[in-house]
Fold this protein.
Amino acid sequence: MEDAFRPSTDLDDPPNSRLFLVTSKSITEDVIRENFTMFGEIQDVWVVKDKQTKESKGVSFVKFAKSSEACAAMEEMHGKCLVEGTKPIKVFIAQARSSGSHKDVEDEELTRIFVMIPKTFTEEDLKETFKVYGDIEYCIVVKNKSTGESKGLGYVRFHKPSHAATAIEKCDKTFRAILAEPRNKTPAPENDYFNNARPDHTMNDPGISAYPFADAGNYPRADMRGSDIITRCLMVSSRASVTQEQIYSLFDLIPGMDYCEMQQDSYGFSTGHTMIRYNNLGSAVYAKNKLDGFEYPPGNRLVVTHIDDGEDRRSPVGRMAMQLVAAQMMSIVCNPAGPQLRKTSTVYPSPAVPQCPRIQTDVALPPPQKLAPSDSRAKERLFVVFKPSPLPMDVLEDVFCRFGSLIEVFLVPGRNVGYMKYAERKSAEDAMATLHGQMINGVKMKVMLADPPKEESHKRQRTY
DNA sequence: CGACGGGACGC
DNA sequence: CGACGGGACGC
């Protein structure tokens, strides 16, 4: 599944996932590998050597699957001595091959993220939402200077690059989190759209899954924060317009809800984010398990995540207690007919909810796969025409992800067409081969390779 | 035939 | 000071 080597694209993908090491010339690839495996999935280690003498130049590159892994390794290993008597190593995030620059990448550029937020989000809301990924230095909501009204944009500055990277990788994708451009910098020339000249670059990156509980193997991480937290508070995110009352009714099916408020924009429209709190941990865990991924209204898949509620999770005792409760709840939720562990006294009423989008088709579909990380480069896109009308986004995501490396579904507003972005060419080709001319839920699809997006010559706007 | 989105500023 | 290899083939 994972090829050891691939033709080099001159890009680092995902961004900031490669380390630049300065070491004694005696440090070998094996030593580097031994010292860095614990931080994540190493995809490549390369010690730069003199072409003639084969002697190390004291410079190496270590490519990780994820930026958060590379950052954690950098934070932990910079200044460490790998072999007795050798000089301490220096560890930096490597400059992208295409950048041409050899300047050190500074923490300044790696610790501030830029996010889209509901218009009602305050800086405190921002902090509450993102502090689960690490210590925050400050949060900023971008506001209209004269009216003071939020523009629905925010910045979060973390203390550590690994925390910013983890936030980008793990926060709800409706935030569209990316690294913020440093304020003074001219927008990086950064590479153009997608590069269709090259074969695939296999990443096998467990990205943000659209499928609850699909996360299986995780790599050891430097810390255990992130979305592993378990709290009484939930954030419910919806792409389609829903009312607070609708969300309330749904989540009130589970006993113990004591708070439910939808974030609204200045016109009173729903922003798709609703905060919910239960008076006990078990109900919150149950609600997340039952309703994360639930289609409501049909065709719109809700995303439910725990958010930090300020309770002390650092104390080992508190954390263990919560995990215990969570584990009990899990066993009840996951084994409804379950054997010994079942305690009848704690069984909750089950909302009558289908779990996945119903897909009706004659096509033999492979099982769903994880989405590629949203910062993956699109190596191929499909252009899809629907008759008589487009399928819902989440159905499309469910169908088109099954060939691997799907980054994103984009429906052109007001038209019966859309685009599927893939991080690997083969995935797109497989999807096209299987789905072209087929019928899904009564909708006929033409599935073709998309023409490259129109060349806006040398505009800087990146497609994130 | 059926074609292209979203998002930039305070310590 | 300390920056960029190896090998590539299926549709």
